């Protein structure tokens, strides 16, 4: 392997690491922001305090997750100017404006209302605070809109032309570029995944406290709402995923071939490989366990429909099938478990055992991180399946990297790994500590939450200035 190949591999590993770490937080905060808006709306409509207590409980967790998402996102974007400067130069006339729209709309909207949402519950009117919460939730959705539009254009580029500098420039109305062929499917699929991720976390926290016999109104409410989301949205996600797969087959057939493990073409109907070991060197799926014609039925809605295989594509243009094959199965397998959890909760609800069945609670607790694993597996399927192109069929990944030496990339990668695990690991541990405590009557908002980090207790001056809640009972519970 040459120095250039090593630098390319390290740059790809670095981007995969940082974007995987980053997407964990938006996948949670997008859904959690909407959940907070629903909780506050229910409190305003019904006046029931347990909705307000839940709102304050999850608001503190949202604040930390949102902050870590912003920080990790800023760090990630610097790589466009360091490891991928050639890509930035060539695709900048199209990618740049779309990223700017995200800042001008979503980021400013979130920044403008986030402070009111976090610290204004007891300082502004109820309606204004609810407006701020809704604006933050809308801002997270708008952010997803623009980021996914950029990503989708890289998968299905349209409306472009090449100028005399070798750059991609707009050659069609922006609406055509923004709403490129894969964008609607990817947007809906990703946002639903964020809602499911949040529901599983909320449900897992509720299940944890039910197992610990903390069956308060707040705990029951959060668990019930999460199980409704799993039961109603998981089937929708499966349908949306099927439509997204059909769109991918139309525009990126090599990705679907790798997902299915199809090296050979099947003129009379392709089997669905449940398991197997893809071998790119021998160009076959070893030890395959297959269901005849089911792949054609799923992808073409006709069991006898022909499907082409990877052998119809030049080797230099194929994605690595082994990675895509298994990441896809991880995503689908977890999706089926989410559906099973939702159905199990419906059965328990009908039997009036939703808060009593320990098996359901243990299942929900085990599934609480499944959403994060599924979204990462989905992104691996999407991005590795696009290889060897960074802009599909137009710009190769190897031609998009910056002329930077391997030792420099390795050094920055090592720094990223150490820093991310220290900083974001600490933040994650703190979130888990907050989740470990059950929500309770009189739950404090972030501006009044007890501060106890690394053994440091609030000082009297902090109590006087509102930096921590001075109530002895809440400080005792923080201990």
From TrEMBL:
One of its GO terms (biological process) is aerobic electron transport chain. GO terms for cellular component: cytochrome complex; plasma membrane. It is a multi-pass membrane protein. It is found in: Cell inner membrane; Cell membrane. InterPro entries: Cyt-d_ubiquinol_oxidase_su_1 (IPR002585). Its EC number is 1.10.3.-. The chain crosses the membrane at residues 15-36, 57-78, 98-121, 128-148, 192-211, 223-240, 323-347, 359-380, 413-432. Keywords: Cell membrane, Electron transport, Heme, Iron, Membrane, Metal-binding, Oxidoreductase, Transmembrane, Transmembrane helix, Transport. It comes from the Bacteria. Residues 442-479 are annotated as: Disordered. One of its GO terms (molecular function) is electron transfer activity. PANTHER family: CYTOCHROME BD MENAQUINOL OXIDASE SUBUNIT I-RELATED, CYTOCHROME D UBIQUINOL OXIDASE. Belongs to the cytochrome ubiquinol oxidase subunit 1 family. This is Cytochrome bd terminal oxidase subunit I.
